[in-house]
Design brief:
Length: 324
């Protein structure tokens, strides 16, 4: 399909060809054979570690009724979200390295982009809910059981996922209305900016809504962290019990490390899009890091730093595995 446009100055006709093909081209990695093999092994190992750690964390919480508490019910959403992001990313990279393929179906690209954006939005919102839970537990310990009931937690979790899916769905509804005239994906994975790069039409509405989505998610995340942590800090300063203060600060420090890690990786990814002179390899590495590092470190941090989960996980492995 093509469209004729007329230049107002030189009266020449320009032709824009719309690409109706369902196959997209991926920018070659241009890696030597030895480096490609090493990268393939590293990517496969990273994905297996992410699967193992996140599944272990979830199974530990699900299979132990003593861990069916509000904090842990919120926590299991973080591994689920990490699995969504990593599963959307790693299989495509592993396939690309293993088969040396440079093709991807447009539908698969859309599905990958949808999952990765859901992962990005969900990560911030889940950490915001976890901050709210810690705020209630530390600042209003006597009211915690009456406020953070299982029914209330399920409502919060459902609202979080529905809100995330609606925000992300609108992004791709706006994208699908635009015609494509390019087919080269230059990023490490498919996402809204890389798909908009295939469009030869006015993307102002898409850009405005994309900025609105980033702003509203970041506003919720930063506002919840700042508000809850200021109140937690005040409550810790007022308490005279050193053990309570130490436990509260340790829990909050763990949560803050995870949040800052996610924000830094996301910020680096956004900046890489704005720098035109950055190398494609570095841009792809930064984009991949935003998924790899949080998904790998989240279950390790919470598994090692949360005493109840660590103890139950070790007991599970001793009973189920080492018994043989």
């Amino acid at each position: 399909m093509h469209l004729f446009l007329q230049d107002s100055k030189n009266k020449n006709k320009m032709v824009i060809y719309y690409n109706t093909s369902s196959i997209l081209n991926l920018q070659p990695l241009n890696l030597p054979l030895e480096t490609a093999i090493s990268t393939f092994l590293l990517a496969t190992l990273s994905y297996l570690v992410i699967l193992f750690c996140n599944l272990c964390l979830n199974l530990t919480v699900v299979l132990n009724k003593t861990l069916h508490q509000p904090m842990h019910l919120l926590l299991i959403n973080l591994p689920i979200n990490d699995l969504i992001g990593s599963t959307a990313f790693f299989p495509q990279i592993i396939k690309e390295l293993l088969l040396d393929t440079r093709k991807m179906h447009y539908t698969a690209c859309l599905a990958q982009a949808f999952c990765i954006h859901t992962y990005a939005v969900g990560a911030v919102l889940i950490l915001s809910l976890m901050a709210y839970d810690r705020y209630v537990a530390i600042c209003s310990p006597l009211k915690y059981q009456s406020i953070m009931t299982n029914a209330h937690i399920m409502k919060l979790i459902t609202a979080m996922w529905v809100f995330s899916l609606i925000l992300v769905s609108v992004i791709f509804i706006l994208l699908l209305r635009l015609p494509r005239c390019k087919s080269l994906i230059t990023h490490s994975y498919c996402d809204n900016p890389s798909l908009l790069g295939l469009v030869c039409a006015d993307t102002s509405i898409n850009n405005i809504y994309g900025l609105f989505t980033v702003a509203i998610v970041q506003l919720i995340g930063h506002a919840s962290i700042i508000y809850t942590y200021l109140h937690i800090l005040v409550a810790c300063c007022k308490t005279k019990r050193s053990d309570t203060k130490s436990k509260a600060m340790q829990t909050c420090a763990t949560h803050l490390v995870v949040f800052l890690l996610l924000e830094c990786m996301g910020l680096f990814t956004i900046i890489s899009y704005r720098l035109n002179n950055i190398s494609p390899v570095l841009r792809r590495f930064i984009g991949a890091s935003a998924i790899i590092f949080p998904s790998t470190l989240n279950p390790i941090i919470y598994g090692l730093k949360t005493k109840e989960i660590r103890g139950k996980a070790l007991a599970f492995f001793r009973k189920r595995i080492f018994i043989f």
